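S1.2 Input.
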Amino acid sequence: MNRIVGIKLFVVGAVTMSFVTQVAQIRADSSAATQPVGVNAATTTRPAAVTTQPAGSSVSTTKRASSATSRPADPAVPSQTASGTLTRTTPSRVVATRPAPIESKQVGGEPDGIVQVANLVYAGTKSSRCFSDHFLVQAEKDSAISTSRRFHAVKLESNDLFDFPMVIMTGEGTFTLRDAERHHLRRYAENGGVLLASAGCSSEEWDTAFRNEMATIFADAALSPIGMDHPMFHTVYDITKLTAHHGTPRPLEGISLGGRLAVIYSRDGLNDTAHAQGCCCCGGNEITNAVSVNVNILAYAVMY
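S1.3 Output.
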């Protein structure tokens, strides 16, 4: 089992366990509230709280096909409309109570129950620093996902890439990836990782360079518009439209591999530079509901 799938299985198992515990408590409380007056509590049968860990929550002992924790299939991604838009109408929701993390350290230093997100160093020295990590805090507040509060900088050609279920790539101006970086990104996507890419300040030069690289790396899968009915937009929040500083923003685009989105791209920008220290969107048409969109993308990345 590869490391990315292991991380996803752990997170899905923890979320499932949290949900099962909640249901058991609700049933127990309901039984107590309806118990007849005068009945001895010691002899009254109450619904047993479900405490058994769901199959699949242990990364080391379960297979990916376990029904409780396996990544849900996303049949919408490979099926497209006549216009090429990726669609699906049945969303999957993330329960809004997070479990306590288990104390075991990951590469970034956090316990195993904490989801870590990396921002990429690519094309040798180009960084992705002007992408705000503010959405990680929001994800902790509004979903069952426990997250690291900060990004971890990771080189695209490093093997540490495979310890993160989602990575961020952004910037301005043109760039060219090295062959080793292209190879790593392809392997990362094929092994369950999600790349969230965003043109900093709606940079046309960066957009052109990114499209050229994606066409080289994923020659068998082109970037296609993602419809607003896709489950990615309905994991934590119900997002029905994108908003931007000026007019209607262009739709997000995606590349699908193995029945799920492996690359998610915004030409206008999901950087949320208002929360990125020392950065600004100078003249671009950045998406203004980026925080909610990024939370949903994170949930999609760990659940699919």
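S1.4 Remarks. The radius of gyration is 21 Å.
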